[in-house]
Amino acid sequence: MDPEKIMTGISKELLAALKVMAKAKTPDEKLKYSEIVKNLCESLGVFLDLINDMVPYDFDKDEDDESIPF
Question: What is the pTM of this model?
Answer without folding.
Answer: 0.70
